[in-house]
Amino acid sequence: MNRDHVLHVINTIYEKVFNEGRADLYPAFVSGPYIQHNPLFPNGLDGILGYIKQAGRIPCEVKRVAIDGDLAFVHVRYLEWAGQETAGVDIFRFDADGKVVEHWDVLQPVPAASQNANTMF
User: What are the extents of the domains in the chain?
Assistant: First the structure.
């Protein structure tokens, strides 16, 4: 798997698909069967694509990316996810052709106050 290609796919998903609301671009980066581990969405492209289309723009900032073999880990600041700022980690598994075939995510609302001076990002 080509690391530069994976970074291009990730950058396009977050900058174009999410930040600009270009849901139409997402299918080009996915190969089926698309396995979804978020319990709110079914397997396959239709569920997540429908959500992205309905949401329109999903403003976010990618804070860091790590790639390990066929997995990419993306630490994201979602500026407004379900009505509030949210810290997220998306994990994508890529096939040999550089397409997303599996997705996991972990989402945590950013609290108004913290017990330390560190940020979640």
Answer: 3-109
d(CA 91, CA 105): 6
Query: What's the number of CA atoms in the CB half-sphere (13 Å) around residue 6?
Result: 21
CA-nearest of 23, 102, 119 to 63 is: 119
Percentage helix, strand, coil for the chain under 3-state DSSP, each rounded to 5? 30, 40, 30
For 14-42, the pLDDT digits (tens) are 999 999 999 999 999 999 899 999 999 99
Contact 105, 85 (CB under 8 A): no
Question: What span, in angstroms and rounded, lies between the C-alpha atoms of 68 and 105?
Answer: 16
pTM reported for the whole predicted model: 0.93
Could you tell me which CATH number the domain at 3-109 has?
3.10.450.50
